[in-house]
Amino acid sequence: MASAVEMHFKQLVEYINEQFRKEFVQTGEEAPADHISVATADWKAFAEFLKNDEQLFFDAMMCITGVDYGEESDLGVIYNLHSMKHNHKLEVRINLPREKPVVPSVEQIWRIADWFERETYDMYGIEFQGHRDLRRILLPEDWEGFPLRKDYEFPTTYHGIEVPKMKEGWE
Amino acid sequence: MTDTLDLELGSVQAEEMVLNMGPQHPSTHGVLRLKVRTDGEIVTHITPYIGYLHRCFEKHCENVTYEQVIPYTDRCDYIASMNNNFGYAVAVEQLMDIKVPEKVEHIRVIVAELNRIASHLLAVGTFGLDVGAFTPFLYCFRDRERILDLFEMLCGARLLYSYIWIGGLSHDLPVGWVEKTYEFLDYFEPQVEEYNNLLTFNKIFIERTADVGVLPREVAISYGVTGPNLRGSGVKWDLRKDDPYSIYDRFEFDIPIGTGVMGTVGDCWDRYYIRIREIEESAKIVRQALEQLPRDGDVHEALPKKIRPPKGHIYSRTETPRGDLGYYIISDGKPIPYRLKMRSPAFTALSCINEISHGWMISDVFAILGSLDIVLGEIDR
Amino acid sequence: MVNYFLDIFANVSWLAAMPSGTQFVLAALMTGLPLFLFVAINALIAVYAERKISAFMQDRLGPMGQGVGLHAGKWGLLQTLADALKLILKQDIIPALADRKLFILAPFIIFIAAFVAIAAMPFNQHILAADFNIGVFFILAVGSVGVIGIIMAGYSSNNKWSLYGAMRSAAQIISYEIPAALSILTVIMLTGSLQMQEIIKAQSGTIWGILPNWFIFNNPFTFLAFFLFFISGVAETNRTPFDLPEAESELVAGFHTEYSGMRWAFFFLSEYANVFIVSGITAVAFLGGWQSPISGYLDGPIWGLVWFFGKVSFLILVMMWFRWTFPRLRTDQLMRMGWKYFLPASLVNILGVGLWDLVVN
User: Fold this and answer.
1) pTM
2) Which domains, from first to last, does chain B contain?
3) Count of A–B CB contacts within 8 Å?
4) At CB < 8 Å, which residues of chain C contact B?
5) DSSP secondary-structure letter at C59?
6) Looking at residue B332, what DSSP letter applies?
């Protein structure tokens, strides 16, 4: 069994470019020093590679965060991965179009992604393809709207009951 | 909330019963609903329903300044609130590159570990209560009251402190606090014997918890379980040693892991016993920190005048009594966070309950739930 | 005791003139009423004792009050009375979908089972409501009628949790009846009679001049039988560590979840009556009943009462001690203990006592 070898970000990037696909990750002066951007189409295969490869062995998904980058721009999903064996970390970011945010689900690879993806769906409306049970987790099942989006409007009624008006400033 | 029970004819077998352990129940630690499908007394499937305590923490954080987020972080895991504050302060300080003075670091470690002891005492006591032992609960609370008295002396609050600020602390140590803490430690360290005699090595307790709800190592890692639950499965992983933050690398303490001495590795007894051992270890850390505490220094020295972190993302994690607490913060240069995500350890711990409860009886579901030590405030945020 | 009253009536002219049926009913009432009052007062005292003892074991104070006449009496003595008054004044809620007749009947059946068993309990040499010549058998038989009440309560509540509690309770009580009965059998073998007073009288005198001749000291098999019987008795009364049927933290309150007010108080009354009965039989069969430990001295009728209540109170204290110390056993572990360990142990006991009796006597 391979012993634990911790790799820094640059080494990880080099390794991925060698082993997974050439030029998969942008390198050079302009490249970000802390995360990898991945396209939606590549994500499933890349995720399996990250989990199963001996040198990388990212067996723990620390966190999945959904982001709304602003009124006119995209939504995004950010995955923070960690390897218990080698003790190295990686951050993967995927940008999604606002009108139809769809990304492949990795819940069969890391089981915690089941609940994390449900939460991201609940808050942002990002659809995870292949998720076996994608439904709301924190909000009631029949809630309308996706609260953490920047253009979310608070509902004025819920099941016919008036919601009290939000007070602004010192009202 | 509309939620349909699957009652179509032919889909539910005649022997299977659907039992609802509703949001109001003496033994779910908070408002948690478990829909349990059982075959007689044997559980076949559990579906947890959470969200009863959702208070829109993340949306609030996008509307208040960085300092104003601190009271919100208290209220997520209300039992270990110092640790929540600590995690958040460490995250923002990394983002802003602030170095806090030595005295502040030591005090932070002391209060975080005291809060760890208090939280584990509650976990141990309520676990005993779930299994039917009424007395250890009261003994644990009696000792926990002493810690809460120390905190009240420190910052005025018993449960929700907002004590650890970004770059410092809210109050300095009052006169006599260090002596009182030494007194408490002298009183408390022999008390753990009492808990061991009453509950830990009690034959009936061992029968109820050993071999029950075994969480295998790979399942634990895949489900993102961390903290005492992961260590119970034999994985020696503690952020205080393996990814140190603050000044934890200066202290000597052990990381107890589950060895399956009473049953299997990763059963409820292991997770429970680790908490008892961690109480002892935290007491050691507090003692060392008190000895190394610099007596003079201003705790407000490094508080920044204006908290405007530079643009950037950060993911930072700390070890709370329940596991890895992670904060993912995105800053866009304004005094208000752009996005703040809290990755709570109890959320991941609860997600694996279906996997580890197969084949056990209804009474065991409560034993398993109690051994996972969840706090709904943290899960729902 | 009924005969005692009938004798008194025979000497009073106007009572003797009444038809014998009426005389009998009157005598029975005069015997039964004090017994009923005794059961009620026993429950009051037992509840207060339980709360105070549990409080002291848990490092707290329990019910407290400032002075006689004020809200709860000095040391909280009037607390139970206040609770009883409150329960009587509570609204009587019967769930809409519950089976009304069974729901209402269940607490009474449980109470009757406990109350009737007290009729055969010897308090001292003379006070004994009904001195059956099958006394022990009668108590064991009547005590099991309580199970029917429990199942009725659980079923009629129309609540899955209550049903679970009732089923567990029924299984538990029936399983532990057998070791209990077999353990008592050892004592009966040594006495040769089922009559309660006979069993007590057979324990008079001393062993080796110092130890009282109680069955617990008689031979090692009855010593073991004492523990088997006592623990089976605890299981019969549904107390911790066997209180899964009414497990507070799991089934909310088990088979009496849906009961409120005075109906619930009846369950409580009968639980404490059962506790008294189990302790009483243990004291009678193994600890000499109303016999004094120092044979020959201190054995008048009043002393008999003192010794009997002393022994019973000690056993009740031990039961309460169990409750606040041990966690609860799971249903299957409970059943396994009863069938796989207690039952063979009690059978071996019977064999042992028989051999001992043959060899030694």
Assistant:
1) 0.87
2) 57-352 (1.10.645.10)
3) 80
4) 54, 57-60, 160, 164, 240-241, 243-244, 247-250, 252, 323-333
5) T
6) -
